[in-house]
Amino acid sequence: MNKEINLQSADNIRALAVAMVEKANSGHPGGPMGGADFMHILYSEFFNFDPSDMTWPFRDRFFMDAGHLSTLMYAQYYLLGNYSKDDVSNFRQWGSNTPGHPEVDVARGIENTSGPLGQGHTMGIGAAIASKFLQARFGDWMNHKVYGFISDGGVQEEISQGAGRIAGHLGLNNFIMFYDSNDVQLSTMTDEVTTEDTEMKYKAWGWKVITIDGHDHDAIRKALTEANAETEKPTLIIGKTIMGKGCVTADGSMFEGHCELHGQPIGHTGADYEKTLLNLGVNPSEPFEILPEVKAFYSDILEKKKADAKVKKSEIDAWRKEHSELADKLDLFLSGELPALDFGSVVHKDGLATRAASSNVLAYLAENVENMIVSSADLSNSDKTDGFLKKSKALKKGDFSGAFLQAGVAELTMASIANGIALHGGVIPVVATFFVFSDYMKPAIRLSCIQELPVKFVWTHDAFRVGEDGPTHQPIEQEAQIRLLEKLKNHSGDSSFVALRPADSQETSVAWKMAMENKKTPTGLILSRQGIKDVPAKSGSRYAEALGAEKGGYLVKETPNPDVVFVANGSEVSTLIEAAELLEEKQDLKISIASIPSEGVFRLQSKAYQTSVIPEGVPVFGLTAGLPVNLEALVGENGKVFGLDHFGYSAPAKVLDDKFGFTGEKVYHEVLDFLNK
């Protein structure tokens, strides 16, 4: 092995990282300089992929956690031919392919969007779970690895506990993570914030841990060889590295390991930009050039990667010929397409809670969709994902033939793992918890939206009717928060999220239909704890009428020339039906009622359709168990929304309905008051 060319390659990566940050006058140069040795050895000698087919489903995957080290990735992938000189020289600029933190771009090698620390490696663990799930169904030939890269911040971020626990518990030996341990954080030295023994912590979770000099190429090779041979555990490679490796001052003195090298151009620190480039063997007048020797070396590496991938692909082709039905099934999984499904065939008893109706649908999906992983934060018998679990079994170390992930009490970790499952491809992730605990999931929900991942979120116990558990468990403001994401566009120009709060069992079936068919963005189902009276069918099939929910909103009760139009979603629809009966009987009013499970989807319909549901010039009354803002845009300036502007209280649900004014009788009086004014 020619050590000189490997050291030269690592120094070229360091120089490119320094130059990118210096030109942008923004970024984090010191960490990439420390991590360059590991990155180079990993990609040149261990990482399996096809440079001519970057989206090959059976490639190894690299999940960056420390997104501020984006220049490390861009420099490495520039050597691999995935980025151009213009790309790296326009780091952090408008319209460039090299944003400040990596954004998912599989064709260039970026598997995940990262930046919020802790989530990147957790998504990698999700990808490793998806890989194990598929391997259990299609064979051990599917043996690609998932690599993670983490920094001190990612280790400290609380999500790392859930991620480390779950990866160790499941024995994810296909997950290998490098911890760039350089003793420096953004604003302090690491010893100022922690004295924990990271090695012992990960060992306690069931990981194999190898500690090395992160600049010693032979040590890196040995560690990666051991990690790839591990059969029982995920591996953490703790690489002791130097922040700003290779930095020098104007007089040529070494200037390494300093805190200020973390988060600003090195020219703003005690280091000298030009002298550092010279120290790394790069001409300061051509900082974005790949050194000729490195270019030739990487040209050979790329040819070898293509040849190795060709051998693997021939192995897969042989498997395909021998197992044609399995191969067709695998292709269906990877396509993201669904088998033929009949959601109208799911049978519901009368008056179910929508969480119970969801359980019925999940039981149907467990028997008809073979590539789903459903997960619950230790609540499966309460969020009713046990409807799926009863038709499947839990994933276990050494046995991934099941399809249910018992995540334990770790909502954020679970949601981030779901993002990783979606990023891997071939598997549909569903995660569930109480709606109030969606607060714990928001950072991962946000990354679902940014990355445009079709994760399905199931949130039950949707309102104050949780009752006796009191205000800590009663969602009030959560729906308003989630619905803001329906108003937020992703980079494809679509609404970044679909939030669905169905009014009854059949609407729940339709909501699941919408969620499963939504392959572009995440979907949230917001479901009741308590039983709900079914919306009366106007004629014929209630399911057929509930398909109106596919337009985001529709009339469940339609009256020509109504005196007032009612608007709600979820269980408040049935309350409005009760109030309407009283108003028709006692006041001879004509009333239409709209169920709007998703304002976001409703707003995508034509103006003509929207006004056919909520006509202009007619008084509109909205009812919501959350903040009035949930419906204010729907009722308009002259409408009224009756909702809550306070936290809940501990009491039985029916008592709270009465105290808060959510009975047919009390809504009747609210409507009269509104119309009289």
> Largest sheet, order of strands side by side?
7-6-8-9-11-10
Largest sheet geometry:
6 strands, parallel
What is the helical fraction, as a range of percent?
A: 40-55%
**Helix count from the secondary structure assignment:** 25
Structural class: alpha/beta
What best-fitting shape do the alpha-carbon axes yield?
Answer: elongated
What distance separates the N and C termini? 86 Å
Uncertain stretches: none
- Regarding quaternary structure, what we see is single chain
- Tell me the fraction of residues in β-strands, as a range: 5-15%
Radius of gyration: 28 Å
DSSP strand tally: 16
Mean pLDDT: 97
Quick tags:
677 residues; 25 helices; elongated; single chain; alpha/beta; 5-stranded parallel sheet; 6-stranded parallel sheet; 16 strands
Give the helix/strand layout.
Elements lengths: L2 H22 L5 H17 L14 E4 L5 H10 L5 H5 L29 H20 L7 E5 L1 H5 L2 H12 L4 E7 L16 H7 L3 E6 L3 H13 L5 E6 L32 H7 L12 H31 L1 H12 L18 H15 L3 E5 L9 H4 L14 E3 L4 H14 L3 E7 L7 H10 L4 E5 L17 H10 L10 E3 L4 H13 L5 E4 L15 H5 L7 E4 L6 E5 L3 H16 L3 E5 L3 H4 L4 H7 L6 E4 L5 H7 L4 E3 L10 H8 L3 H13 L1
Parallel strand pairs: 1-2, 2-3, 3-5, 4-5, 6-7, 6-8, 8-9, 9-11, 10-11, 13-14, 13-15, 15-16
Antiparallel strand pairs: 12-14
